Amino acid sequence: MRKKTIILLLLSHFLIFSVNSQIIKDSIYNENIKTVQIYKNGWELSYPVIILNSEDKLKLSFDDFNKDLKNYCYTLIHCNADWEPSDLSFSQFAEGFEQNQITDHLFSSNTLINYLHYSLVLPNENCNPTISGNYIIKVYDDFDDKKIVFMKRFYICENIAAIDLKMLQPEIAKYMKRSQQFKISVKPNVEDYTDLKTEIRTFIFQNNPSAGMKTNIISRLGEDNTLFYDDLDSNLFEGGNEYRNFDIKSTKYQSPRIQKIEFASNSCSIDLYPDELRNRKQYFFDKDLNGNYYIANSLGINKDRDADYLMVKFSLPLKDPFLEGDVYIYGALTGWECNKTSKMVYNFQTHSYYLQLLLKQGYYNYLYAFKEHESNEIDLTYLEGNHFETENDYLVFVYYKQFSSRYERLIGFTMGNSIKKAEEKKPENKLPGLGGE
Questions:
Q1: How does pLDDT run across 260-301, given as a tens digit for each residue?
Q2: Rounded distance between C-alpha atoms, residue 47 and residue 43, angstroms
Q3: Cβ-count burial 297-313 (b if 16+ within 10 Å, e if not)
Q4: Structural domains of the chain ordered from first start
Q5: For the whole model, what pTM was predicted?
Q6: What does each C-alpha distance from 119 to 268, 305, 309, 405 come to in angstroms?
């Protein structure tokens, strides 16, 4: 009996360790949930990063095709830089209640497809994070945290590290036409450190924290405790190509990328013009949202409730299908994932890859991604081409974990751009396709 008890205890410890060490990703577990967004309140195109103990707020919103009002609740999970849950209880990283109900909702109005729109602003009087770091908001149903509806990532930063990011054309000749080089310096304002080179971790992302990432960058430590990341042969990203786009803010007229609009009794479908491969074409600048999307209804009053859902049809003509891999629609519209939802199917009758996605009215960016069978590597250049001139955002996150600390702090964040100095301000309809909302 004692031996059996010991085995059960060992198994329980193993299970706890497995749960606590798992990497948590943005995930939707309910097919009725659509258009999950989290951004700085008042700026839909912003990244979900706010400063600790500031006036900054985050807004979470999503739509539910279930016609009945649900008891959706949420809780927060604190994570390290690798998105593994920290070994902290809720009271050690937040004030308020561990379980809170989402009470703000709107019923859709004058739409072909009915839905409920839910929203939430964080921090709030019931839930206020008290430390910096990576966070997951977990939304679940009926007060049961095992009935997970979705999970979404966000960041809270202390802003105590001075970060300088420079983007430039590579200095090594073999990278000059296809890559973009970065140089970073970080001066952290921290105390009681032992070894900054091991206690500081710096991450840089291209366009979105869910997309391309560089970490464990080669660094050197200056005399004034400034960390420099400037290796010419490894601090590189492929430039890629500008994102493709389409505008479905209105169903009354056909915007440039729309081939056909068809209405049925309770639905509307949009056929996009067939696309062309761009892997052998010259670079052409086209202002984009770097893979993001913006919800809008040009004939509506409140896009949260009167923007409709449309079935959008994509096609990429190719003489023959690829035998070594698959083609996917890639961007925020598919959660930056190559999975069964974003995977295209080859049609032998039309000799083209095909996919349809149910999307809320707005302005969208996308790329065609390629992924070999049994590989986790997503290739955004195989079908789209690769150019050093491409305009890309770059996001830098700096983390600090003192040797004796139980969690990893996010002490610095900055943004840069491959062709211009990024200024963090509300776009105010200056981005493509946003006029006339």
A1: 999 988 999 999 999 999 999 999 999 999 999 999 999 999
A2: 9
A3: bbebeebbbbbbbbbbb
A4: 22-157 (2.60.40), 161-239+389-417 (2.60.40), 244-372 (2.60.40)
A5: 0.90
A6: 26, 11, 18, 34
